[in-house]
Specification:
The protein is an alpha/beta fold. It is built from 10 helices and 40 strands. Strand 36 and strand 37 form a beta hairpin.
Length: 575
């Protein structure tokens, strides 16, 4: 038979293959010369009649329609149970052109689906694999259902490709499971699954969501995934675990951590574990690979370690032991205050640069709505339901969150970042109307003078203003026109009696118009008085009564402002 031009050359497989003249790679259905797909009706019936529950079968490279596979599996049904029971199942390189209904099948020995192709939906829900199962290099172009499946030994999905959703919810993995190099172009759902012998999960690539909600990890595990989203709602880690992620938005709401869990952003693409390691492509996942935590609600964070993650969109409400969470890495990010200048009540308002919590954004967006048309980066970020007061934390609750995270940074010897959270704590206390008015007034003064002892520029600005005002006050009212000259008075004693003289210093006098008081000579004297007052020293300069009281006030206020500036600088440079 002549091969048409352009037809790829037929490469025979390593197993005895079908003698179909078109070049079929299917394994012969012994004792026949053809594969199962090319058996004539009488030969197929005879072949099926020779099968029994628990028997081995080898159909490598065979193409199955949904009807073909149903007929084959029906021959393995055990009269005692409704499900088919297979021995060694060899389907490597097989092509399932229709649905693959393996639901509830018992694989009593190994199951091999290496490089198999599932053109439509693959149904393995409720299946039981008592031996090793290998799906390495398999291609799933439709949905893959493994929900409720039980894997008693190792299962491998290395380099497998899933172009639709893959369902493993409520599956049980009793031994190792390998997803290294697997690619999911949609979602992979492992909700409710149980892992009791898995040491690693991944590295895998998922353009959709990796759902690990309600999953139980009973042994130490390392999870490596480049994914758009990873959901760990009420996931339970009963042993130590490490999550290395890329691109992902990670939701840890309600996660149960009985042992340390470390979450970090992997800086470069993962590499396959093939003999020649190569970077795994990340289709549908553009960007720098930043990992964004979206929620830590109801999580006991005492065992949580976060490294180089983005917490700018994270909700911390209802988390436990936030003072014990460990936050590390140079690329650790929190939300920032709005940029630019806003006008409020006719006055400009500039927000002090600092790290903030998303919950503060929600509260301020409710308390101080942005004007229409304002740029997004100049506004506080509203919550999903900012008008619902029950879902928006108030200043009192926010102060507690800031206090706990401040302590976490201080315990980690990160004083500069702890300073930002101390600032946020004081801000919330200042706005908390449940606190005494005197405390709020004191905090307002502390904020205005030095930004709670954390803004050196503000304290230095007030110090410069106070010194300038004191210099002017000294020039206008504090320094006398002339230094007073001593006056000596006395009486002439009688002969033979001692002479007694009394020296009196008259009070300094200030005369002349204001224009004559503002001179270079008086400026130099005033500056000397003010500089000495900053360091608690008396200038020794003759002063008017008004100048004396002015110096007394400056000797109290200006050293305080200088100390606040030094405190702020120390808070930023302290290790």
């Amino acid at each position: 038979m002549t091969t048409p031009p352009g037809t790829p050359a037929f490469i025979p497989p390593s197993w005895p293959h079908c003698d179909d003249p078109a070049g079929c790679r299917g394994r012969r259905a012994d004792p026949h010369a053809q594969c199962f797909a090319h058996l004539a009706a009488p030969e197929r019936a005879a072949y099926l009649a020779g099968l029994a529950p628990g028997a081995d079968l080898d159909h490598r490279g065979t193409t199955f329609t949904s009807e073909d596979l149903t007929d084959l599996l029906d021959a393995f049904r055990d009269p005692a149970t409704p499900a088919p029971r297979l021995g060694l199942a060899e389907f490597s390189g097989a092509v399932f052109s229709g649905d693959a209904p393996f639901s509830g099948v018992l694989f009593a020995r190994e199951a091999w689906f290496i490089d198999a192709t599932f053109a439509r939906e693959a149904w393995f829900d409720g299946a039981t694999f008592t031996g090793d199962a290998r799906f390495s290099g398999a291609k799933f172009t439709g949905r893959a259902w493994f929900d409720g499946a039980t894997f008693s030994r190792n299962i491998r999905f290395s380099e497998a490709l899933f172009t639709h959703d893959a369902w493993f919810d409520d599956a049980v993995f009793a031994r190792k499971v390998f997803f290294d190099g697997a690619t999911f172009t949609r979602d992979v759902i492992l909700q409710g699954a149980t892992f009791t012998g898995t040491a690693s999960l991944g590295p895998l690539v998922c353009a959709g969501e990796v759902t690990l909600s309600r999953v139980v990890f009973g042994t130490p595990v390392t999870i490596e995934a480049a994914a758009a989203r990873v959901r760990c709602d009420r996931t339970r880690w009963e042993s130590t675990a490490t999550m290395r992620l890329r691109h992902a938005q990670l939701d840890l709401t309600g996660a149960v951590l009985t042992q340390p869990l470390a979450v970090s952003a992997h800086p470069v693409p993962f590499t396959s574990r093939a003999p020649v390691p190569t970077p795994l492509p990340e289709p549908g996942l553009p960007g720098p690979g930043t990992v964004r935590i979206t929620s830590l609600g109801a999580v006991d964070t005492a065992h949580l370690v976060l490294t180089d993650v983005d917490l700018s969109g994270c909700l911390f409400a209802d988390a436990f032991h936030l003072d014990q969470v460990r936050l590390r890495g140079r690329r650790l990010r929190f939300a920032e205050v709005p940029r630019g200048v806003r006008w409020r009540h006719g006055l400009p308002r500039h927000w002090t640069r600092r790290k903030t919590l998303l919950e503060e954004h929600h509260w301020r967006a409710t308390a101080y709505p942005a004007p229409p048309g304002a740029p997004a980066d100049q506004c506080w970020r509203p919550g999903r339901t900012p008008s619902d007061p029950d879902r928006t934390l108030g200043p009192g609750d926010l102060a507690v969150l800031y206090r706990d995270l401040r302590k976490a940074f201080e315990d980690g010897k990160n004083e500069p970042d702890a300073a930002d959270f101390y600032y946020g704590e004081c801000e919330m206390r200042r706005h908390d109307h449940d606190r005494p008015r005197a405390e709020r007034a004191l905090l307002t003064g502390y904020w205005a003078l030095s930004g709670y002892g954390l803004r050196a520029s503000r304290a230095l600005g007030w110090l410069l203003t106070a010194m300038t005002s004191t210099v002017l006050a000294m020039m206008l009212w504090g320094l006398p026109t002339h230094d007073p000259e001593p006056v000596t008075t006395g009486t002439l004693p009688a002969t033979g009696r001692p002479l007694r003289l009394t020296t009196q210093n008259p009070d300094p006098q200030l005369r002349g118009p204001y224009t004559r008081r503002l001179s270079a000579d008086r400026t130099e004297k005033a500056v000397r008085v003010v500089v000495n007052s900053v360091v608690f020293r008396s200038s020794g300069q003759n002063l008017t009564p008004a100048g004396t009281y002015t110096e007394m006030a400056s000797r109290f206020t200006e050293p305080v402002l200088l100390a606040l500036a030094a405190l702020a600088i120390r808070g930023r440079v302290k290790r």
